[in-house]
Amino acid sequence: MMVLPLVLCGCNQEDDVFEIFANDKTWHWSGSYTTTNWKDDNNYKLNLNIDDLSQINKKTDYYNIIFEENGNVSGKGENFTFKGTWNAMSKDKSFYINIQTQGNISGLDKTFYDAIKSANFYRGDSKCIKLFNSNKSEYIQFYPLGSLNQ
Question: Going by DSSP bridges, is the β-strand pair 121-125/128-132 parallel, antiparallel, or unpaired?
Fold first, then answer.
C-alpha cells in the first residue's frame, strides 16, 4: 500500500497550473515524504508509520483539499476544517497558500495541516499533487479522491 500512491503519481506531464489546481477536484492525502532530490520520484522516504498511512487512506471523508479556479481553497482533516486562498506559478513551481482553520488540530490533523501550511513549491499533474516545503526536502502528496477505486 505504501508504494501504490507513488506508482500512481509519476508526475511526468509538465506542470500545468490549471490542469493541477483549477479543476475543482477533491484531492486526498496519500502520504508525507522526505527527499534529497525533489525532482526524482524514486528518491523518497515515508514520514508516516504504517498505521498512520493506513488510517489516512481509509478515511476518505477526511484529509482532503479542494483548489478552486478563482483562487479559493478549502479542506478538512478529521477534527478541523480550513478555508483560504492559493496561488501557483508554473515558471518556478512556487506555491503560496493562506488558510484559516476551525476545530482542534492535533495528531494526524497537525501533520496534515503543517505540511499544507508550509508548502512553498509544487509538482504534479491531473493524477497527483506534491506540495513541498521551502527547502524542497519534505512533501505531502495528494491524489484525486476516488481515483484508487477506479
Answer: antiparallel
Q: Which residues contact 118 (CB under 8 A, 6 or more apart)?
A: 133, 134
Cell 484525486: give the residue.
Answer: 144
* Sign (positive or negative) of CA dihedral 118, 122, 126, 128: negative
Angle 128-19-124 from CA coordinates, rounded to 5°: 30
What pTM did the predictor assign? Answer: 0.87
What are 62-106's pLDDT values in tens digits? 999 999 989 999 999 999 999 999 999 999 999 999 999 999 999
d(CA 48, CA 13) in angstroms, rounded, equals: 27
Q: Is 135 helix (H, G, I), strand (E, B) or coil?
A: coil
CA distance 31 to 47: 8
- Position 106, amino acid: S
